Amino acid sequence: MEMSGGIQASLGGRYAVALFDLAREGNVLDTVAQSLAALKGAIAESTDFKGLINSPVLSRDASGKAIAAVAAAMNIDPLTVRFLGVLAENRRLSQLPAIVGAYETLLSNHKGEALAEVTSAHPLSSDQISALSASLKARVGREVAVNARVDPAILGGLVVKIGSQMIDSSIRTRLNSLALAMKG
Hints:
The protein is α+β, with helices and mostly antiparallel strands and 184 residues long. The protein has eight helices and four strands.
């Protein structure tokens, strides 16, 4: 699988490739993606969940039971539940954010899409995301999946990253550029 070459360089990437291959064999790529998106949301929103996946003091058994209970409550698909169990057993739950990101990239590549990481100061509406996706499609020449996140520190505007390309139209960057220009 040539597209996974760079991704496999990291530990999280190797786990993501394994999960992707299993999901493709089981014809559940999108189902697993939805489960991973839910887990990604939980990591972002819950300090308890973040603590669970990063806890060095929980035993493998306790960690496995806790993640299984969380997965059941979140209606996570069976393949992802088994995968989380393997991560807990191998003490690799802390790799979950990296695994989710790598899986998203693999899925986008598989679908022939580009994956755009978009950071905004405020949440984007579905209409804004659709318009942004269409604009980016015109720029890169293929479908673009938008992965939006919020960072109030950019003040306004957008930071868009597609592969190695970055478009930074954030107000913070503009202010920093202006400050540098004024210093002479």
